[in-house]
């Protein structure tokens, strides 16, 4: 009786071992081969200026499965959006079994306002696209806008709708002439002051700002090394008028 039970026990163990071997051959081995074949070894990042490649990688590769090139490609191509600050979307290209190229498309940011300790960045139409405690040095802060509420992904409600056209025109010109502008300030008459490093440039209120920004660019280049506090260009128009340069700590 004991021999019969032992034979049955050995037979059961053999069947279980055989099933385990078959399971490994048909399931486990393909998984191992799949993981080895598509092991992610190279991830190249293009188009990211506001986040370092390392920061982008940290936001993309979050689980062990993300270390598989094919699974990573399928995940972000068909199923999941990448959530990265100041990034609109990313496109992935599977170059080989082990290499993925990531193309980053950043959000178009025109300016920012400070609200309750946060910087809220908006696009050319005035829609808030990002909120961050981080102040981007290349994006001018807008001062003098009045608003009752600020909601992410909604439009800023300010005192004059066409102010966003003015801001867009100014930021485009600032970029064109490669000016370093920290703030764009509006007073209650909508006259504009630009903070260019240590120099305040009073440019007033105009229908267009192309001429005055071009003039300001030339003046700032000539004034390099000079200790100036203000440049008053409010009376300069059509190539005529006075430009007043006020030095730092002027003496009486």
Automatic annotation (TrEMBL):
One of its GO terms (biological process) is cell division. It comes from Mobilitalea sibirica. It comes from the Bacteria. The chain crosses the membrane at residues 21-40. The keyword Cell cycle applies. The keyword Cell cycle applies. Keywords: Cell cycle, Cell division, Membrane, Transmembrane, Transmembrane helix. This is Cell division protein FtsQ.
